[in-house]
Design goal:
mainly alpha; globular; Tetratricopeptide repeat protein; TPR-like_helical_dom_sf; Serine Threonine Protein Phosphatase 5, Tetratricopeptide repeat; two-stranded antiparallel sheet; 2 domains; TPR_rpt; single chain
């Protein structure tokens, strides 16, 4: 989906659009859809655009259409980002922990994804020891997967944590 190609990250490792106008057009197009993929993409694009209320609405609609545990976990993590970026760290943490518990029980291939996002949430809360534990778990799992982009993403999150925890 084009929306995911239009995302980069700022210094706080938050999603931002590489091209605002293109992202707005893609979000509008996907928002009119009625499938999980379209609504999730539009929700993630809305998070990147800073439209958190719209993002939560779209992502909740996508969650209702999620037909696998993997999809539920993915959209819960996206919902957590919508809350975290908007300053609701309590709800963001709750969603991350729910996603991590579901991944541990039903989708072990997503533990690294959920653990990384929990680590970012805990970093934002200033709970650095807990964040370090979650991010180290994500890194260990991602090293085992061998996907360099995922490894780099987790190392960036750990670097940010270490900068904040000085």
């Amino acid at each position: 989906m084009r929306i995911f190609d239009l995302i980069t990250y700022d210094s706080e490792l938050r999603m931002i659009p590489t091209d605002v106008a293109a992202m707005e057009a893609e979000v509008k197009r996907h928002s009119r859809g009625d499938s999980y993929q379209q609504l999730r993409a539009a929700g993630v694009g809305s998070v990147a655009l800073g439209r958190y209320d719209a993002a939560r609405d779209l992502l909740n609609r996508a969650r209702e259409l999620a037909d696998t545990q993997t999809r539920v976990i993915a959209v819960d993590i996206n919902l957590a980002d919508a809350h975290r970026y908007d300053g609701d760290l309590v709800e963001a943490e709750r969603l991350c922990r729910r996603a991590l518990a579901a991944a541990r029980s039903d989708s072990p291939d997503l533990i690294d994804f959920a653990s990384q996002h929990l680590g970012k949430c805990l970093t934002d809360q200033g709970r650095f020891d807990e964040a370090r534990e979650a991010l180290n778990e994500a890194l260990r799992l991602r090293l085992a997967k061998g996907e360099q982009s995922l490894i780099d993403s987790t190392r960036s999150a750990i670097d940010r944590l270490e900068q904040l925890d000085r």
